[in-house]
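pipeline/complex-builder :: batch 7 item 3
reading input block
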Amino acid sequence: MSERLFYANQLAISRTLTRIENDRSVAREIIGSLEERDYHVVGITGSPGAGKSTLTDRLALLSSKEKRTAIIAIDPSSPFTGGAFLGDRIRMKSSTKSEEIFVRSMASRGKVGGLSPSIYDAVEFLGRSGFDRVFVETVGAGQSETDIENLADVVLLVLAPGLGDDVQTMKAGIMEIGDIFAVNKMDLPGASQLATRTGAILEMSGRELPIILTNSINGQGVEELHNLIEKALGELDISGAIEEKRRRRTLYNNLNSVYQIIKEDFSENAKLEELMNYLLENRRLSDES
Amino acid sequence: MKRVKVLVAKPGLDGHDRGAKVVAMALRDAGMEVIYTGLRQSADEVVKAALQEDVDIIGLSILSGAHMRICEKVLNLMKEKGIDEKPVFVGGIIPAEDALELKKMGILEVFGPGTPLKAIVDSIKGAVDK
Amino acid sequence: MNNPENLKKVKEEWKEKKVLPLLRKFPERKSQFKTSFDGDIDILYTPEDLPPDGYDQALGFPGQYPFTRGVQPTMYRGRFWTMRQYAGFGTAEESNERYRYLLSQGQTGLSVAFDLPTQIGYDSDDQMAEGEVGKVGVAIDSLEDMEVLFEGIPLDKVSTSMTINSTAAILLAMYIAVGEKQGVDPSRLTGTIQNDILKEYIARGTYIFPPDASMRLITDIFEYCSKALPDFNTISISGYHIREAGADAAQEVAFTLADGIAYVESAIKAGLDPNVFGKRLSFFFNSHNNFLEEIAKFRAARRLWAKIMKDRFGVTDEKAMMLRFHTQTGGSTLTAQQPMNNIIRVAFQALAAVLGGTQSLHTNSFDEALGLPTQDSVTIALRTQQIIACETGVTDTVDPVGGSYYVENLTDRIEKLALDYLQKIDDLGGMVKAVQEGYIQKEILNTAYNYQLKVEREEQVIVGVNQYLSDENLKKDILKIDPVIEEKQRNKLAALKRRRNSQVVEEALKELKKAALGSENLFPIILNAVKSYATLGEISNTLRDVFGEYTEAVIL
């Protein structure tokens, strides 16, 4: 199947994604059968209630004017029943109405990092099937924020006033991740203070990163945000840093698979998670050297 | 790892979503992944959600009396998009003769007021296992 | 014995000596007895369970603060409540016919049901309206339809209640225009528009615009009507749908009054005097199955609202503290199984509403869990009210259950629980915010789900549904809406659009857009547009362009 055709065939994409989600080795086979392709992954994270979904919706719509765009929205699975509510489509009105954008919800299915265990494969598959931009919206709680760093080329951290973001994010160290910061709900009191404080915190940690005020409901600031993301991706392409990002993505995809294999085969072994952390730690050390 | 994926949709203009949400909660508690679309979905949007999410089964909640037209449209669109193998069930205030008509049309099951949640969950599990 | 301390002791002794020995031999039916709001129910209530505030403060006299025993001094000894059956379906012609029938049968007020496209601001020819035209109520696209709807019904003689919310301004404008054509001055119009948008976000779903714009439209109506329609109730703050969505009795009171507080606050902000418009506020409650609890609920709501108006808003005119309400029996309590049982349910619910002191009442038809009611079933529902009014004798004295130890205790408890919720909502930054964040919706859904689980476990028995089943054929005569209606309505609309002066329409809409962008009162401009025969959809879409549309809170 030609690239363009595959992209256009939402049904084929959708059905293949299900196979990828349900079986890791099948996923490998499918991805292996498709040629490698350049595409970009934009990660969107932040506290629940910050307006991630609405913002993702608007960004995807802008992106879809030039690029073939897909969204993967992740929601948490219940640790007790394995069931999940996937409600992101409610807030993604434009994208779900658009003929151009492919929207898919995924349950986290108990993955430690908060992303879905098959997320790497799903993203890689979408990229190879012809999508240029894949937006990945995280659960927005737990460890998904740190995991998204390994998956995405550019990470957008969405904050909003009134959520205790200023205090909490500092505490959690979430601000260590994120390449672009959006202070959403800019119409609410406290938004500009939050932006200022975010800037100060970043400066203290020696990172100078763009911070932008947005209103995902009426779209204010979203176009600038879109341009910032495009610019960041463009810079990655030009500097060649994108290659490093992709290398890291593959690396983590592999590690993730290792984890899955071990976990599925010896699920009663409580030590496995610890073992996984060692592996990740080692890897990080070797990267830094 | 395989999980049952269900679409719970509220097509049409009717805003009574207690039933849809309570059923969605029960399905989640039964270990399913439930995609909820929110109110006022066109047939087009419902079918698109079913297609993009590749759900195993589709539930439509309709209390406005517009069920005949809506179901017909959804089923036709599903055929057109090539996903007519997915079972569809309907919940709501559906007169008995309409329920018969809907089943003839291809709706798998019609759940009226007072249907036990367990019956709905079991029926969905049964339909998906087939 | 009259000393409460002593009474408490005596009751304990009675429990120990009389009850416990018996329980050892014959245990009770259930290990615990609970109210709908999950409160414990004791085996017996005595004078010690009466309100601690004393008779004067807690109960008082009918027609006096805090109105626990009723808003009028004579209540039903003066006149019965308004028997108002909600009706409307198909085209304006058909609904008009049913209204005239109901009036001829002794009904004393009209209650108009609109179809969903009318409620959500779509004309019958809009793609969104497909399949829905005339289904749950009458389809109104323009003033022309409204003229037909009230043909032969003198608007100065009948009080009309309209269940309309996000498009309330448009429909009220049409009503005024029809009145004027009949030669009735707006100041003589009586009735109610629902106009309660917050509960649409919470429970009923016919919202269009985001909350800020919606609240503006509502206060614009308040302001305009305070002068032009002084006898018209400009809002019916509705707990009915909140209860239908699954809330318990205490939540129904809490969330309804919280909505009320939000409206009063925004009206005060718009410069209105709560002593004046407080009198134009009306409420709308559900009457459910739990008979005594429901009676207590109405009394608790009345007392709490009086306190809120007096203490929170500093109202001094007692009339502006009175909670006057309409009641509808609980639609969600109707069963599709053994539908005739519903007649009995409705009778008890209606009786609870009357004992709770309702000002008007709709009794559901027994076949409504199967489809739209037929003329016969509607008649039985109306007769139920007439039997309560004329045969049961409960109308011959005011607040006959007042002083019941149990009912007074329940009244207190419901009031207290509602008060706790009001505090929580204040802490969240008010009702609008609590709704936007989905807090209220989540609370209700959790109650609804827990209730359903109780039904599944048969802890809650529903006769004919989870116990006392019988084999039956669910087929019945139901009212069918002719699918041709949609086409008829579209043709009528097309004809109107050809006939009217489109230039005048365009100008009226342009003016509306300009006004919406600014801050002036939109009502007179909408009235002007309506008179030019601009359609409901055209007016709504003009406002949609300016205000945008609301996206529901994700609560699952």
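note: Chain A touches chain C through eleven residues (CB under 8 Å).
queue -> next item
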